[in-house]
Amino acid sequence: MRARSTGARRRTPAWLVAVAAALLAAPLALLLPRVARADLQVLITKGVSNPIPIAVVPFAQTPADGGFDVAAVVQHDLEGSGRFRLMARRDMRATPSTAAQVQAADWRAAGNDYVLVGRVSSPSAGVLDVDCDLINTATGQPVGSKRFIASLASLRNAAHQVSDFVYQQILGVRGAFATRIAYVSLTGTPPMQRYQLIVADADGENPHVIFESGRPIMSPAWSADGQWIAYVSFENRLSAVYVQRLSTGERRLVSARAGVNDAPAFSPDGRQLALTLSGSGGNLDIWLLDLATQRLTRLTDDPAIDTEPAWSPDGRSIYFTSDRAGGPQIYKLDVANPSRVERITFGSSYDAHPAVSPDGKRIAFITLDGNNYRIAVQDLSSGTVMVLSHGHLDQSPSFAPNGATIIYTSRDGDMDTLQTVSVDGLVTQRLSDQGEVREPVWGPFTN
Amino acid sequence: MHKSVLVWIAVLSVALVAGCSHKTRPTPAGANSAVPAGQSSETAGAGENSANAAQQAGVANGTGPGVQGPSAPQLQERTIYFDFDSSEIKPEYNDVIAAHARYLVANPNIRVRLEGNTDERGSREYNIGLGERRAQAVRQALMLQGVADAQITTVSYGEEHPAVTGHNEAAWAKNRRVDIVYLN
């Protein structure tokens, strides 16, 4: 199955451009979020064989909502998940906006298992209520109703929350539509490249440049509260690790030591950064940096390359890549007793870049599969490995906060493009962009 | 000592490093000595953040117009290439390294930055490690020939600074390299 999820790329709303223009005028323009040049576009490249049929009816609107089409965002989200088949608007014979108005039998006859209806209203100035009802067409009864309170600026996010609600009600898994991703975008050709660190909604919309440089930006990582991004910048030719607060643009240099400063990863409590340092001797090991005191604690001490630390959700373990056995493999250390190291991967001559699932039960990583670098997941209790991707140079896996999807990059011709794959391998998507896109990391739930 | 003896010592030293480097990898540093020092003078001094074309070209290949460094013909070759997943210095680069070592020993106020690079395959962060290992192999070779530690800075760009942009073995071979960049 190969389907375009939307007929045409949606334009950035005018109000967003106005907000961005205001931000650009601020003195700290470089560090404040602003709208990036190109939106991403989601293309489903593979979906489940029996998607759930659903109709998302256009919501009743109010003049205060600025014409924003909530239902279109929900439709796009659900279709992009690959788990649903959406009824086309042109085929809808009625536009109910409350559960009472829904003639369930008619919608069922048109092939839908579910109907979503809703309305946007403005109970007071500046406040928008988004109400929705999800109806099972077999019973005619609402399976769930919910109100989301938003402002004009947060209406798109509220629409994503409606999608999360539908996804949860029907599939029993929390949706991750109302979350964000960060990635590095590269435009231009040598020697005039621009590297941009971008934060966008999980569907690629609403992209904001949070930092840019003529020299490489690498290794973005989210804090667990979604307030901070850590990353590596070579802006002074040598590597350095920075943390940046998204709401204000406040940027702190936390490590510019001799040699390698790389692969920062916030501890789940946000107090520490695991990172890779080499010192002038060039031996990469993993260290803990206390962000309040700047105190460094060594975690690994091995002549091999030890890098790419990834925390378990309970903060007790760190998975990392090491070539102490020859080629790169994934290991786990006990943070309280870091000399306790256990090898985790055995299936390939090259396993690297671990990402831990939000429930801590599996890891995703890069594996050499024949002559191809692909994304695999390993169940940590059984050791079962499944290769999920099909590219020849796939990199940088990161789990969605609901654990259902992995985002990664795949080389297509001369460019790295963003892809997602469901952890069961059944649904793949491509998020395209105008230029090279690298190192996507999926942010946490924030509501 | 006769000059040819010195050259032989240099060649043997490089061969020794090359022979050992794969198995031994960089020497494990002690817990104290390996605590990375504060921001180096290089980092502190270089405040600019512009995409200057000549500077960028220098980063990409270590030579070219506007690039610092000695003008002697034997010192114009400033790139050491490596085999896949290897940080062994191949014998054909012994002369290149020996020439730079002689110049640096004779000019102890001259400093170089060794920029380690990899091809595009595999993990970006692991490749930072591989690039650093290559830069360290060249650093060790220079130091064995008498260059002072203080004259050398290393940086790894991993796969982030390819010299050429192709996606085949010919391009990959040109990207697995250490560039010797003269800083003054």
In short:
Chain A has 447 residues and is mainly β.
Protein model, in words:
The complex is a heterodimer of chains A (447) and B (184). Chain A is mainly beta. Chain A has 2 domains: 51-171, Rossmann fold (3-Layer(aba) Sandwich); 180-442, TolB, C-terminal domain (Neuraminidase), CATH 2.120.10.30. Chain A has 4 helices and 32 strands. A 6-stranded antiparallel beta sheet of chain A has the order 1-3-31-30-29-28, with no helix packed on it. A 5-stranded antiparallel beta sheet of chain A has the order 2-11-10-9-32. The longest helix of chain A has 17 residues, at 155-171. Chain A is globular, with a radius of gyration of 23 Å. The two termini of chain A are 33 Å apart. Chain B is of the alpha+beta class. Chain B has one domain: 60s Ribosomal Protein L30, Chain: A, CATH 3.30.1330.60. Chain B contains 6 helices and 4 strands, in the order H-H-H-E-H-E-H-E-H-E. Chain B has helices at 3-24, 41-45, 53-61, 94-106, 124-144, 169-175, and strands at residues 79-81, 112-117, 152-158, 177-182. A 4-stranded mixed beta sheet of chain B has the order 1-4-2-3, with helices on both faces. In chain B, helix 1 packs across helix 4 and helix 4 (94-106) crosses helix 5 (124-144). Residues 3-7 and 9-65 of chain B have low confidence and may be disordered.
